[in-house]
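re the bet — no i am not wrong, look at it urself. input seq straight from the record:
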Amino acid sequence: MKKIFFLITLFFVSNLFAQQLAVLKYNGGGDWYSNPTALPNLITYCNDTIGTQLDTDVATVEVSSIDIFQYPFIHMTGHGNVVFNDADIENLRNYLLSGGFLHIDDNYGMEPYLNKELIKLFPQKELIELPATHPIFNIYTKFPKGLPKIHEHEGQRPQAKGLFHEGRLVLLFTFESDLGDGWESPEVHNDPPEVRKKALDMGANIIKYVFIN
């Protein structure tokens, strides 16, 4: 088992230099494909503002695919149901423990379904809400109140929760914020420029935090 884990880790590290990001395709009926312009726009913004050299061609990867280890950062979104089978759980857990990072952005309605799947992913861990003092809110643009609100749904406050392994943030779950909507092209939601900038700045914070830690 240790040998397999080492080979997985080696495979992941050897592909870090490509710096291509991916969207996670999952089962359960949720619209994993929502916000199609979000991640490409965020990548372009980061390349222009914080000096990253990320590939603007975004990949799509399935949860149980070994291809997941090619991508240092994976983005997951949607509105509805999420189901991880045993193969999904094992693969995703190995990916995260091997150095990968998963950002889950609830596009509204995903949270109750996702929570039960995350319990299966790491039964001994729990999501911890990140305080506004966490570096992820201060590393590029400062957000003194923590995760910004981009779109309003039910009047709930925006929250950013994380799963940690040996002190490293391996999974970030953002909800009641809709960051991905703010990353979409302007004509999609007709958000004011200042709202889109706020969302993109928070996205740049996430990218910068992941790639320097």
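see?? The longest strand covers residues 168-175. told u. also The first helix runs from residue 2 to 14. so pay up
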